[in-house]
């Protein structure tokens, strides 16, 4: 009898194990959504996610990007309505800090790999009061794309100063070539891609930016006026009817060989490579005026955060921790040329053009886009002020001095450090 009972107990135990295994085999993996503004990167990001899925088969992540200009508004609507993605691209500084302060982002306190693999500066771009709310993901660089064949045809060298850049533009225009392809139909282009590109060459890098932010100098000082003057100086070298030229149009003017240069960012590298233009192209740093040091805008662009209302926080934290690894950084560098991993581990870039763009800031001072760290915290925010002023200067409805005054007068309504200069 005892033997029969023992046999029965063993049978029950074996059946229990088999039943549990069957349940585990048939259980569906946890599925999370990942929101983003990068609609151009679906295949590349999915390959990054596939690498995670291979090592974490119990977690699936579905990439669901939104059209870039709509992302901020769409994401906020989703979050306030309780339909936000589990994971999301988070913009650096003010925009991300607002989401965290309002409780939409999970604090990443003690996330494995975060403190070890990122610089203090990178963490600060996605932190508030010492608390991180997103994993630093990618940075982008700014510069000028140029048609090497056209430069060679017209015996032009890469300009080393702003004055030389204007001379190159004059030579090209005289030869019937559009010097710069950029336009202002997409208003952010003239502000974010052109003005923020050249601005630090005239006002200085990070330390100079901090002088403005601490109220040591006004936003309409001579350096700021000179930056708007530079924008006015290149206006004659933009396409005829530039007010109707969109960002896409500008890319095409360059890719078709009709324009010799394009103020742009490293994020365009993959698109330009895939477009296979029939000429050689490369990039150079936007040069500073004679007597000043060239500063490269190298911007912390996107972090990845976790929705504080996600029902799958544990799975989300597992993914974010994996993102801090060298494995993830290497895949990211290869799959998204022109988007640079912020992981401090040295990564070899496979794409030549991405590597060339990355090399632009070597040995130079670098800084984030001027208005991002502090000047978007009030109304009117610094981004909209510089955008309005930049567009007006290019269109001739504001002088450089008026544009700088407009920036100062707008900021002094709320930005306390600069209110001492209020007239």
Record keyword descriptors for this entry.
D-Maltodextrin-Binding Protein, domain 2; single chain; alpha/beta; 423 residues; 2 domains; globular; ten-stranded mixed sheet
Structure commentary:
- It is a single chain.
- The chain is α/β, with parallel strands linked by helices and 423 residues long.
- The protein has two domains: 172 residues, D-Maltodextrin-Binding Protein, domain 2; 213 residues, Periplasmic binding protein-like II (D-Maltodextrin-Binding Protein, domain 2, 3-Layer(aba) Sandwich).
- The protein is 46% helix and 16% strand.
- A hairpin with a 2-residue loop joins strand 4 and strand 5.
- About 4% of the residues have low confidence.
Q: Mind sketching the topology for me?
A:
Elements: H1 2-26, E1 30-36, H2 42-55, E2 59-65, H3 71-81, E3 87-91, H4 94-101, H5 114-117, H6 120-125, E4 127-128, E5 131-132, E6 135-147, H7 148-153, H8 162-174, E7 178-180, H9 187-203, H10 206-213, H11 222-234, H12 247-255, E8 259-265, H13 269-275, E9 281-284, E10 295-306, H14 313-323, H15 326-335, E11 340-341, H16 352-359, E12 365-367, H17 382-395, H18 400-411
Parallel strand pairs: 1-2, 1-3, 7-8, 10-12
Antiparallel strand pairs: 3-10, 4-5, 6-8, 6-9, 6-10, 6-11
Helix pairs in contact: 2-15, 9-11, 9-17, 11-17, 11-18, 17-18
């Amino acid at each position: 009898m005892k033997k029969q009972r023992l046999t029965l107990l063993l049978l029950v135990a074996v059946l229990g194990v088999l039943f549990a295994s069957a349940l585990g085999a048939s259980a569906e993996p946890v599925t999370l959504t990942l929101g983003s503004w990068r609609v151009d990167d679906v295949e590349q990001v999915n390959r990054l996610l596939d690498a995670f899925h291979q090592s974490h088969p119990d977690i699936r992540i579905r990439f669901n990007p939104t059209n870039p200009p709509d992302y901020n508004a769409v994401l906020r609507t989703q979050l306030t309505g309780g339909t936000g993605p589990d994971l999301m691209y988070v913009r650096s500084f003010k925009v991300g800090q607002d989401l965290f302060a309002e409780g939409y982002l999970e604090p990443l306190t003690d996330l494995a790999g975060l403190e070890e693999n990122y610089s203090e500066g990178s963490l600060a771009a996605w932190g508030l009061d010492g608390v991180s709310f997103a994993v630093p993901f990618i940075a982008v660089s700014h510069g000028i794309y140029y048609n090497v064949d056209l430069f060679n045809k017209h015996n032009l060298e890469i300009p080393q100063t702003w004055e030389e850049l204007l001379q190159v533009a004059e030579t090209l225009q005289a030869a019937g070539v559009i010097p710069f392809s950029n336009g202002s139909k997409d208003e952010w282009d003239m502000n974010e891609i052109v003005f923020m590109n050249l601005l630090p060459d005239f006002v200085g890098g990070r330390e100079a930016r901090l002088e403005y932010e601490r109220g040591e100098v006004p936003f309409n000082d001579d350096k700021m006026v000179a930056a708007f003057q530079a924008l006015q100086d290149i206006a004659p070298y933009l396409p005829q009817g530039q007010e109707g030229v969109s960002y896409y149009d500008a890319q095409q003017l360059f890719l078709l060989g009709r324009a010799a240069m394009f103020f742009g960012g490293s994020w365009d590298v993959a698109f330009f490579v895939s477009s296979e233009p029939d000429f050689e192209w490369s990039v150079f740093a936007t040069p500073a005026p004679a007597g000043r040091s060239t500063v490269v805008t190298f911007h912390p662009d996107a972090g990845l955060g976790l929705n504080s209302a996600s029902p799958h926080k544990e799975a989300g934290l597992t993914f974010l921790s994996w993102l801090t690894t060298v494995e993830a950084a290497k895949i990211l560098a290869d799959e998204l040329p022109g988007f640079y991993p912020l992981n401090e581990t040295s990564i070899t870039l496979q794409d030549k053009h991405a590597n060339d763009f990355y090399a632009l800031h070597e040995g130079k001072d670098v800084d984030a886009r001027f208005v991002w760290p502090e000047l978007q915290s009030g109304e009117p925010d610094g981004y909209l002020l510089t955008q309005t002023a930049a567009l007006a200067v290019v269109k001739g409805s504001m002088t450089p001095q008026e544009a700088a005054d407009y920036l100062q007068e707008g900021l002094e309504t709320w930005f306390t450090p600069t209110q001492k200069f209020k007239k």
